[in-house]
TrEMBL record:
Family per record: Belongs to the NADH dehydrogenase family.
Name of one Pfam family that matches: Pyr_redox_2
Cofactor: FAD
Name of this protein: NAD(P)/FAD-dependent oxidoreductase
Length: 355
């Protein structure tokens, strides 16, 4: 019996499971899923969990059940490609015939002293719960600093504003304009929303140091009651420790068929894969679809697909609280109520089809 081991039940790993189960998994293949949590987590909604506007169970989806799907829960500490083993909880080895690495990303602190020690995060569900406890236990008129004004920082800041109207929120952005990768019209719309709702944007920020309850911007101290870091990501440490070729962001370079060139039994999906697009849930799912095609060909001893059509990504949707939003769909900027409704609809559809 061949053993397909999937590291991480995120968007990529979940899509692989749902494509192979219940009817496409060959009779001589079993799957071992390894994750910290006994459920799939909707990472795109962690900002709302941290802000306190949704409860924990709203962002959990059960893994599928199947006689040849075994789940293992714990911390993955190492992948040994030569022994074809995954080390779990530092001492337990699980062998694989094929491996899909979908471990996601962690915060990147850019060597800023104190950033990893004195800031909160929304990169994992555990960290988001911890951030929720901190933010929602703050006293009235407390100050929250959010470092990083990409999609995560913007959504967290807007959701926190609706959750805690009493808080002072400072959003540190290293660019001249918030959401600088988006069209200027959309960027201006989001900036105006923050101005109208009393969120202070500090542009062209350069965070040089973090101390307990103090953010240093260009070495100038800003006192805060809580600091949340949303200023960049990097692949999971297990992937960073892999001795394989990577791009300048630390993501693993892959063949057209999504496996590591020198290890054709190791596939990498999602945030850890070097792909010509920014990491996202829909990109991980699209890549997972292609990996399943490769695996089925491989297991049937058929030639692997030589190439795939380009990924068709629908765009990006972001929320500004519960009533407003923004997005870029088919390169068309969307602002206001419609993108917020679209995002809610996409989330509902995902949970309906996967739950």
């Amino acid at each position: 019996m061949k053993n397909l081991v999937i590291l991480g039940g995120g968007y990529g790993g979940m899509r692989v499971l749902l494509r192979l189960l219940p009817n496409q998994l060959p009779d001589d293949v079993q799957i071992t899923l390894i994750d910290k949590n006994p459920y799939h987590c909707l990472k795109t909604e962690y900002y709302a969990l941290a802000a306190g506007t949704i409860s924990d169970h709203h962002i959990r989806v059960s893994f599928p059940e199947h006689p040849r799907l075994q789940t293992e829960f714990g911390t993955i500490t190492k992948v040994d490609p030569n022994k074809k083993e995954v080390i779990l909880n530092e001492d337990r080895a699980i062998s694989y015939d094929d491996l899909i690495v979908g471990l996601g990303c962690e915060d990147k602190y850019h060597n800023v002293p104190g950033a990893d020690e004195y800031t909160y995060s929304i990169q994992s569900i555990d960290q988001s719960r911890e951030t929720y406890q901190k933010l929602n236990n703050l006293q009235a008129d407390a100050t929250v600093a959010i470092v990083g004004a990409g999609l995560s920082g913007v959504e967290l800041a807007s959701e926190l504003r609706e959750s805690r109207k009493d808080l002072k929120i400072k959003l540190f952005d290293r660019s001249k304009h918030i959401l600088s990768s988006f069209p200027e019209r959309l960027s201006t719309y989001v900036a105006n929303w923050f101005t109208e709702h009393g969120v202070e944007i500090i542009s062209e920020a350069n965070i040089t140091k973090v101390e307990p309850n103090i953010v240093f911007n260009h070495d100038q101290p800003f006192e805060c009651d809580a600091i949340v870091w949303t200023a960049g990501i990097q692949p999971n440490k297990v992937v960073r420790d892999l001795d394989v070729e990577k791009d300048n962001q630390g993501r693993v370079k892959l063949t057209t068929q999504h496996f590591i060139p020198q290890y054709e039994d190791i596939f990498v999906v999602g945030d850890c894969a070097s792909l010509p697009h920014a990491p996202s849930a829909q990109l991980a799912e699209a890549q997972a679809e292609q990996i399943v095609q490769v695996l089925l060909k491989k297991w049937n001893n058929e030639p692997l697909p030589e190439n795939f059509p380009p990924f068709k990504l629908k765009g990006v949707l972001g929320s500004l609280g519960k009533k407003q939003g923004f997005g870029l769909v088919n390169d068309r900027p969307l602002m206001g109520r419609v993108p917020r409704l679209l995002k809610s609809g996409v989330l509902w559809m995902y949970k309906y089809h996967n739950g």
